[in-house]
Amino acid sequence: MKSVVNPYLSGDFKTSQNSFLLQPISSEELHANKVSRNFWCNVKGKGEWSATGVSSSQQAKVFTREEEEVTLRAGVLWHSIHRVSKDMGLSSSILSFVPMDHQVEIMKVDIQNISNEEITFTATAAIPLYCRSADNIRDHRHVTSLLHRIKTTGNSIIVNPTLTFDERGHKKNELLYYVSGSTGEGECPKGFFPCVEKYIGEGGSFERPEAIIREKEPVGEGIFLDGYEAMGGIQFEPCTLKPGEEKSFIIRMGIATKESVIEEVGLAYSTVKDVMNALEQAKEHWEKKQNVYYETGDADFNQFMYWVSVQPILRRIYGCSFLPHHDYGKGGRGWRDLWQDCLALLIMNPNGVRKMLIDNFAGVRMDGTNATIIGEQQGEFIADRNNITRVWMDHGVWPLITTNFYIEQTGDIDILLEENTYFYDKQVVRGEEIDTTFTSDRKPCLIDKENHIYRGSILEHLLVQHLTAYYDVGEHNHMRLRGADWNDALDMADQKGESVAFTAAYAGNLITLAKLIQVLEDQKGMKEIKIVKELGSLLQEETQIYDDVTKKKECLHNYCYTCKQEVSGDFIILSSEALARDLTKKAEWIKEHIKKNEWITVGNHSWFNGYYDNHGRRVEGEFEKGNRMMLTSQVFTIMSDTATKEQVEAIIKAADEYLYEEKVGGYRLNTNFYEVKDDLGRMFGFAYGHKENGAVFSHMAVMYANALYKRGYAKEGYKVIHALYQQVNNFEVSRIYPGIPEYFNEEGRGMYHYLTGAASWLMLTVITEMFGVKGSKGNLVFEPKLLKQQFNSKNNASLTMNFANRNLRVTYQNVNEKEYGDYQIMRVLLNGEDIMVTSHKGRIDRKVIEGLEADRYHEIVVLLE
Ligand code: G1P
């Protein structure tokens, strides 16, 4: 149950793209649309009052605080709004949450008499029921209401549309949509308003419904109504409250497959007690999932990070499609989101991640590209239905980053030797050709010449992704941009565009791969690696081909042809050492090539050019309309160790000069190009300072921080994170709940909140770089990069997290109040006992951690001197 509420209790809820109980909304509809979870009180002698503030009279008036005061309280996945109306003598407290055991949203409404006199009122919950696919919002909106079959029972209005009417075709509908209600003591309602038309009346609206204004009689149970827009109007018996007295009502809104489930839900949440128990259970559930705690000297920062750590959980539930700003796609997540969200999962809930990683590799094609439509089930990838052939050139980068992080955290190098299938659909030769023989009824898996489904190791999948990318170059011998890279909006340079930024990222990864192969040899004695025969053609040691764009292209083309419809299934055996050497050479070649050709100097500043446009022209540097700099180009040259120390320092200066702006949250994604650069991407069509065109885009800003910390620039990394956090914290400008949004717009407002990959990266950066608590081949190491100002008044900074399935609280004690760079680790105490003395890096062997009891917290104290 994916629900959204705003302070007016507007916002939709659904279980998928095709099953919305409340009408789908995007950000604009939150105020433009009158649909909400309303709750009316008809007060004897005074008239009607909306306990959610959604009535035309309340909306028309500008209230003073004294007249109608509203307070919002919320925690992780619960929301409570409190409204006090002096005029009416009433207050309302409305709690909203989804319990753990059922697909239902609970709304508990408490109405209190805050006056000195007795008040008699009639309460009516009023929730318009949409009950169909999001596609129908303006595609057969009315026709699909003709499918509705509505009925009333003792406590519910149930809608069971006969058919579904969306891109899946006309199918028999299996779902029941419902609203049910009871008083807080479990009594049934008095009656119902099941039909929108009748409820609002001629000329009425949801903010001024005739049924409420004219106090119409509701219908009883056992009513059947076919072919109308459905209304979840539930009216309760009139009630009288003495001064100070309170009455509660419980509204349940859900989607079920059987009526018995609706009854079960009715029984499970029929009283205030049931609801409060379910709330406690839900709070506990989310608290358990969120098992990382940060304690620095800045309590607000600690709280902020608490909320950031909730975000990856939210993205797994909502994908990128189901919050008001996130109205793209139809559910599910993209390829890079899938992999990056695993980073946070690895920290918070590592169980099951191994299998998830292996399963996800089934999305890789033998030509190095990958499936982009990800199914509901883990490891399920769907062949392209919409004939969109688009290749994002960065996609090959993320699986290795995540897999390597997994190996470091767990020491499980064996994962590289696990096997999985390769994805196969009609898109072949890296999106350049279509296999017309492919039919969608076949399994989307690559076969060998014997017609068996081919399986290769995870290591082989990674090699396929990186080697193909290495040869996939444009005229400047950097990797082709193709459909775009990480920046989805660089999507108009398919022919001649190149992404130097991600070429550097691949170089960094090639080194990582070489190191992993070395670990396989050292730890498992694997002197040889087995790979599919065809891939051998991309492992030529003659380095002269590296400089030759034509030969590289030819080589890639030939390879893609050999595995276009099938692979031989034959293997070749390579020496591990030679393979690692080959990968390292390729990486070094890239780095040198970038350093030699893409380091640009303009006036007093220097930085890397990261892109070529569709005319094959360099994108960054000095231009008539102003100097052009992009953050992404700097991030990956720094992170991959392509940039030298001097270059990193120059980049920091240039970024401070061209990209940093404190009032919008720090480092912008790019300078203003003052041009709708349609030979590079749609981002230039966006207004400057918004989204991918020069906003402070949290994800890339955080990756910049990560890259800086990695290279030892803690002060500079901190500056990036601090600026983002300050911006969030400045509520008057950012206007968001706690957490990190996708970006801050030109005015500094937080946009596209919650469902952003920035959250995983921020957690990763704060934990493994700022606190420097991380795995190294499965062992736990401490490399703190905390600044002096980040320690609390007792000179401590702590991190509570899970490692090797043990709950640990790591406390750094900076007794001599030293600055980063001056302090060193002197001692490490585990549960009070010294386990290591004097070493630059602290480290606890995995075996020691695994030897600890599982169900309690263990204290690790790291003394800095
Ligand atoms: C979003 C997408 C991400 C993409 C980025 C830049 O970022 O989810 O895949 O790389 O835009 O175009 P997010 O909202 O995750 O920060």
UniProtKB/TrEMBL annotation:
Q: Which InterPro entries match?
A: 6-hairpin_glycosidase_sf (IPR008928), 6hp_glycosidase-like_sf (IPR012341), Gal_mutarotase_sf_dom (IPR011013), GH65_N (IPR037018), GH94_catalytic (IPR033432), GH94_Enzymes (IPR052047), Glyco_hydrolase_94_b-supersand (IPR010383)
| Origin: domain of life | Bacteria
Q: Which Pfam families match?
A: GH94_b-supersand, Glyco_hydro_94
Keywords carried by this UniProt record:
Glycosyltransferase, Transferase
- Residues in Glycosyl hydrolase 94 supersandwich domain copies: 85-266
| One biological process term in Gene Ontology | carbohydrate metabolic process
| Presence of the UniProt keyword Kinase in the record | no
Q: Name one GO molecular function term.
A: glycosyltransferase activity
Q: Which residues form the Glycosyl hydrolase 94 catalytic domain?
A: 293-512, 579-770
Record bears the keyword Hydrolase: no
Q: Which PANTHER family match?
A: CELLOBIONIC ACID PHOSPHORYLASE, CELLOBIONIC ACID PHOSPHORYLASE-RELATED
Name the UniProt record assigns to this protein:
Cellobiose phosphorylase
Organism equals: Anaeromicropila herbilytica
- Identify the taxonomic lineage of the organism of origin: Bacteria, Bacillati, Bacillota, Clostridia, Lachnospirales
